[in-house]
Structure formats: C-alpha cells, structure tokens
Amino acid sequence: MKGFKLTILNDILSPQDLKSLSRTDLDNLAGELRSRILETVSKNGGHLASNLGIVETTLAIHLVFDAPDDQIVFDVGHQCYAHKLLTGRQQQFNTLRQWQGISGFTNRNECDAFGAGHSGTSVSAALGLAMANQLDGKQHYVVAVVGDGSFTNGMIYEALNNCNKKNLRLIIILNDNEMSISENVGGLSNYLSKIRNSQNYFNLKHHTQSVLHRIPLVGEGLIKGTRKFKKQIKKRVVAENFFEHLGLDYLGPVDGGDLKKLESVLSEAKSKQNCCLVHVHTVKGKGYQHAEEHPERYHSSGPFDLSKGIEAKPSGDTFSAVFGKIMVAAANTNASICAITAAMTGGTGLDKFSQAHPQRFYDVGIAEEHAVTFAAGLSANGKTPVCAIYSTFVQRVYDQLIHDAAIQKLPLIMALDRCGLVPGDGITHQGIYDCSYLCSIPGIKIYSPETYDEMKMSFATCFENKSLAVIRYPKGAEKKYDRSGFIKLKGLSYQDFFNQDVNRAAHQTVKPEIVMVTYGRITENAYDAIALLRATYSIRLIKLVKVYPLDLSEMLPLLQQPELVYILEEGVKSGGIGEKLAAAIAQDEQINPGKLRIRAIENPLMEQGDLTSLYDCCGFLPGQIATEIAKIVEKKTA
Ligand SMILES: Cc1ncc(C[n+]2csc(CCOP(=O)(O)OP(=O)(O)O)c2C)c(N)n1
Ligand SMILES: CC(=O)[C@@H](O)[C@H](O)COP(=O)(O)O
Ligand SMILES: [Mg+2]
C-alpha cells in the first residue's frame, strides 16, 4: 500500500466535493478511502474491519445528504473513519488515536454531530436532534448509523419505540455485517438473517408495491379512503416486518457494496413521511482479505504489518487471558460457576471458557444492564455468576448492581477488565471511574490485583466468600519488577525502602519519612519513583489489593509515623480510594490529616494517546511523582 497515490481523496475537502464526481471517480474513491484507512490503522492501530465494510455506505450517505446541515450520528462511533476522511479531517488522519491527534471515535469537539464510544446511543441521540429540528421548523435530516451488534442493545428499542412520529426527518441505517465483535448473537441476529435470507424480499416488496400503485382504482392521487383500502391490500400481500409494526418505514436489505443502489434507496428513504429504517448488508473487513477472513481479529488492532496481517496468536499472558484460565479451572471443579459477557468474549478472555463450558457461558449481546440482572437471577437460584465487563461499560449497570444484586443480597462477581487509563480508545473508554462510584454500593468489596497471583487469590476469595464483589484489572500484561521485598498482610502488602544497610528486623523501629499508598498497575510507577528518592528519604510503599472497604486496622498503624502520606491513584480523585482513605484518616486521632496528599486524576476528560502521554498529563510518571514528593517534603521541613 505504500506510495499509493490518493488522487481523488486529496481534493475532497468537504462532502460537497463528492457531488460532482463521476461514477468511476466515486468507485475509485471508495478504493482510496480503504487504502488510507488500511495504511493508517496498520501504523496507529484502530478499528479496521468495521471501517472497511462501511465505506460505500458512508459515501452514499454523504452523496444523498448534506452534512453538516444534515446530521450523521454513528453508533459506537468506531466505524467513522471514512466519514472523518470525507469531512475535512484528512490532514490530521495520520494522527488517529494519538495524543493530541484525532479520536478514533466520533467526537463533537471535532465537529461530529454527536460523540460516541459506547454502543446503543445513536437512535436516541438522533431522535433528539430530529425532534429539536422539528421544533425549530428546520428541514434538515438526521441519519443514525447502527450496526447489527449494537442493535442488540436495549436502548435502541427504547428509542425505536418513540420514533413513530409523523414528518420526522430521521433515517436509521442498520449496518448489518452479521458480526458484532465476534459473531452476533440472539434472536435479533436470527431475525435479521431471516430478513436477509428471505430471498428478494426487498425486490418482491417493491415489485408488489409498484404493481399496487398501478391498479387504477387504488392508484396515486386518489382520495384518502381509497388510500386506506390500498394499504389494507398491501398489508395482506406483503407481510410487514418488526420495524414496520413499530410504525417505521423499512427499506432493504440493500447490498452495502453497491453504491448506486445505496444512493437510490437512501434517496427513497428521504422521501418518506415517516422515520425510515434502511437495512444495509455489508461485509466486515471488505477489501482486505485477512480482515474479511478474520473480522474478529481485525475489529480492533494494534499496529501490524499490512503485507503479513496480524499474527494469529497473541504472545504471552495478559490479565484477560489469566482471568479466562482462572474461570476454566474454577468451573472444572465448581459446577455452579457461570460466565457472562456482553459481546466481549475475546476481549475479556472468556473464549476458552466458552469452549470448555458452553452450557455455563452466556454472551448476551451488547446488553450490560441485562447481563447483570440476568446474573443476579442465576445467583438467586444458586449459581455463582461472574460477569466480565470492561470498566467503562460497567458505568451502565449502576442501578442493576444496587437494585438487583445489593438490595437482593445476592452474591455476584464482577470481573472488570480495561481498568485505569485506556490509551488508544480514549475519552469514552477510560476505566477510571469504577472505584469512585462502586464504593457506595451496599456490601460491595473491590479488589484491584496488580499481579496474576493477586488476581488468582482475589478470585479464590470471592468464590469462597459469596458476596457482591468486583475484581478490577488493566488491559495487557502484569508489570515485571522485583516484588520480593513486599511483606504480605491480609488485603495489602508493603515494602520499606529504608537505608539499605538496615536489615529487615530493624525496619520495625526505623521511622519512614514518607508512606506511599497505591493500587493496581500504577504501583510500578510508585516503585520507580522510590528508586529516585530512596537515597534521600526512607520510604514505605503500601500496595492495596483489597481497595474497598479499606482494612483500616491493618493500614492505619502503617501510616502513623511519616511526615507525608502520598496516595497515588490511577482513577478519578473525586470519590476515589484516596478520598476514602483521607476520610478515614480524618477520623483517626493518631494521624494528622494535614500530612496527606492525593495524586489522582483531576481532569478525567482524558482524550486518546499512548499511556506515557496520558501518565504525563496526570503527573503519574515516576520522575513527576518523585519531584512532587520531594517538593512537598522540602516545603514541610523548610
Ligand atoms: C456499551 C458497549 N458495550 C460494548 C462495547 C464494545 N463494542 C464496541 S463495537 C462492538 C460491536 C459492535 O457491533 P456492530 O454494531 O455490529 O458494529 P460492527 O463492528 O460490526 O461494525 C462492541 C461489542 C461498546 N462499545 N459499548
Ligand atoms: C469500540 C469498542 O468499544 C471496542 O471495540 C474496544 O475498542 C475494544 O477494545 P480492546 O481492543 O481493548 O478490546
Ligand atoms: Mg456488525
């Protein structure tokens, strides 16, 4: 792909420039868009397969509609790369997903009609935009683009239920590529495949309708009563589908690779008086053979060699993979263990479990709320459910955890993946809120293992204790550094970095000047910061594994001596573990609350970027931590 000349794309400064292109130019442009997407994702990482599949649909949308007056709302937003390239962001496209570059999702700051990252929001947002237009007497259209996977999300149906208003300039494009990240699941996916496979349904329907139009007595232009009669006949001859029953017009399925047909069907949708759903059949990964053959592998990828494709096997363990192993091993000996995922089998490491224990594995679709209440139901009838969900998507299940688990006093284990800062995906995917909001759920216990061993122990404890518990861990692998000096207590471990000549037994009597308290992946940063400080100060590092409720009887005695207690937290400051500890210290007569400092995330609206840039922005790099601590101590002793 290197050196591929993008002759047409270079001249597209706005969607208006598309409108004068010839058919041949448009076809070539589709190829150029794919090349640019491939080239960029192979360098920066990103969501490849979905973007390759939706190129012609995006072109058709921008040919038929007039953005930005007409507003396009992408569900999830991970498939918006062609849209970005056609809407004035070509120059920055090489900065995709990079620090201070452009986001891999739709982003209102970048001039998209609505931002996203989480699934299922598009139709509600688009309906709101369309209603606002209607109130203002504006004639603009709003187009929601939703994948078949996202159509498994309940919010879509809540929104569809409200779309049956007259003269609503709202068009919903169902981008059906037969895939979520992995294969799409459930009754809806079967139903869509039925519509697709009812051969020529669309053609038959159109043919029937045009025949009906031609019958003299019921033809166009006749009085209302006759129209009613015509509708009755239509209904009998052509069965309505689910969407039509909800009061929407339905067009499709249309071949999503056929730009001319797409344009014609979208133009027809525009002419409808109702909200219209256009069902487009696309191919995930289209145009790059590796991605067409393995759409799941190319859903979201890191950088890779375009000529070779992505290696089949990930190398080495990750927290997700270790979680998968823990689950398989536990379920081998405990028949009550069940695993639930909301469309993230591979990402959460549950693929092995799904093969080893298919009867006890549930992929419920992109339906986190349902996943948790469903798990609570399993729990109520004696099962041991483990819900594996990314931290960011758990934001959706706050009420389910309170109403359906905590209040019911039901044991339930939440395995939270992708906790902490999430580099490439950015602002919508940061796993930095969970500790803060989950702490207030009655009876909840939160563990934040930093190592695979701690993770295993946390799960073992939770399987045994049968309570409402959260085990949270980051994306990727455990950090490698020397942990041999840590002394384990119940819910924490600690290590003293005093004068190296002092032996461990003597530590008890030596006074640490600084105590650092931290948890999770960022412990390594604390450890590295200590390496910069230990020649000057004696420091104690406390690593929490059980982060909530805090085991104060273990911890407070360790905090009494130092001049400074410095809490380092890869999560939001507001309501976080640091603030919980501060509140506990404030009530302890032995500890002066004035010696506490919290370094946590104060501006959580953190865009995408590499982890080092994100850490830098938060003051989390070891050098920054060391400098801050030295300054505080100097000020105190001055
Ligand atoms: C609430 C929520 N849960 C899970 C995800 C993770 N996720 C991102 S894309 C995706 C699959 C979407 O499938 P579909 O809508 O069909 O789009 P496609 O990738 O096939 O184009 C999932 C599960 C998410 N973004 N939001
Ligand atoms: C769009 C989305 O929400 C997912 O595709 C997410 O980007 C996947 O992240 P991982 O690649 O870390 O599984
Ligand atoms: Mg799909």
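Residues 9-200+251-293 form a domain with the Rossmann fold fold (CATH 3.40.50.970).
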